[in-house]
Amino acid sequence: MEMESTAASTRFHQPHMERKMSAMTCEIFNELRLEGKLCDVVIKVNGFEFNAHKNILCSCSSYFRALFTSGWNNTEKKVRLALMHAEYFMNNVKMNDYVKDSEECKPVIINALKAMYDLNMNGPSNSDFTNPLTRPRLPYAILFAIGGWSGGSPTNAIEAYDARADRWVNVTCEEESPRAYHGAAYLKGYVYIIGGFDSVDYFNSVKRFDPVKKTWHQVAPMHSRRCYVSVTVLSNFIYAMGGFDGYVRLNTAERYEPETNQWTLIAPMHEQRSDASATTLYGKVYICGGFNGNECLFTAEVYNTESNQWTVIAPMRSRRSGIGVIAYGEHVYAVGGFDGANRLRSAEAYSPVANTWRTIPTMFNPRSNFGIEVVDDLLFVVGGFNGFTTTFNVECYDEKTDEWYDAHDMSIYRSALSCCVVPGLANVGEYAARRDNFTGLALRDEVKYSASTSTLPV
């Protein structure tokens, strides 16, 4: 029986005999897996267990093929994959009887402990990334900071933030024209740049960027010119609200449908708003703050797509023009801005259920007209104007700890930029920081990861 099995295996792996399993065969294997029959391995992920067949795993994964065809043996038929917490490694792996008594395991454990010690003592910014064990993984999502106002004029600069490495990468397309006070949105594989200002013209034009092909195209223009525009995405539509057309502050709003390449006007807002900011939560559009031509606003309203109506909600605790608004967790966050006298460090969170605002801890730096987004379950604020100069400072807020943390600065001082997050890029490595080039950091990077910030979630 053993000889027959070996011969059959040899014949199966001959190139001219290779063939794909039929749909019926796949269906049978899946039925057996679901019934728990003939399964010889268990995969455990986040507390959930999945019965599986080694042969099937080997056929679709080089990792499992190497694992199961090596000298590995486990009477419990279980494999634990990577991405473990340090505490788990110390308590469960390092102290395991089989591991600590194995001469083969000892150098592996020692290397892992050295890497963990390096990260703990030096922080992610200064760790030895020539060691593969301490190199951050490629990020799933990239944060883009696009355009803005820098050095007294608009800029075409684009930087990509790699949250896993805490690094910015310059990905500027020099052929593109400068633009500031615009909106940015990601939808169905494309980044859209909406409205804005180039120090001469107020734009109603919209550009679309393909981050895979790295190409730009014009799409249908908006009905109105909109500088200081508020932009958000909901249900495959891009919403553009308020702004300034060069003459008046606008209360009009419109939405874009990529399939038809058309903008459609929706119900106007209750207030004229430029320098406001918008987001979506629970299927509704929220817009907060701004400037109506006379005063900075603390009002906010919500748009119901089904009824095509705007409803005024509870006002914020502070007037905020040049504000950043973003949905994070179960709340709408309103961050920073200008109250008519000062640039603000303060921030607050709105509960749609209670229709109330509550204050959260203040940022390290005051800022207005900055970028804001959520990446890896952290709220990032990027650049802006601090009351004296444009800034390149970046920080992030973690709602679980209710704290702000420093993040790596951009390369370019700028305000009036716009940010958006692009997930699942096939070519993410082209926008991520190099994993073999993390040495020679400036002194300011060493300060970032002090005791108060060394726990930055990554």
UniProtKB/TrEMBL annotation:
Domain of life, source organism: Eukaryota
The BTB domain, residue ranges: 39-125
Keyword Repeat recorded: yes
Keywords assigned: Kelch repeat, Repeat
InterPro entries with a match to the protein in the record: BTB/POZ_dom (IPR000210), Kelch-typ_b-propeller (IPR015915), Kelch_1 (IPR006652), SKP1/BTB/POZ_sf (IPR011333)
One Pfam family it belongs to: Kelch_KLHDC2_KLHL20_DRC7
Keyword Repeat attributed: yes
Protein known as: Kelch like family member 10
